[in-house]
Write a structure and sequence with these properties.
Elements (H helix, E strand, L loop, with lengths): L8 H12 L5 E2 H8 L3 H13 L3 E5 L11 E5 L1 H22 L9
Antiparallel strand pairs: 1-3, 2-3
Helix pairs in contact: 1-4, 2-3
Amino acid sequence: MTRVRKPSAQTVAVLRAFAREPSRWRYGYDLVRETELKAGSLYPILMRLADRGQLEARWETGQQPGIPARHLYRLTAAGQALAAEATSAPRARAMVRAEPQPQAGGI
């Protein structure tokens, strides 16, 4: 049986970055700068999302001599759905908290 957990705050930050331009291929370094996550946190998230089919990953083509190849990433349709769900969840929780709660012992 597969466990389904809510994405971590770090994963949500990565999904938000991708969701801004879902069809754009992104470099890990750009995502490090945008999300302010350390590479040691970001790359495992990228690998996990790719392994689950939520990101496409490919090697950059047309390299110039002396420049190492880099991975590029972008959201798949499943990743776009996850990004939409994950990025809307904080707003939904905030709305629930904003509603007046019945007071214990109230009339």
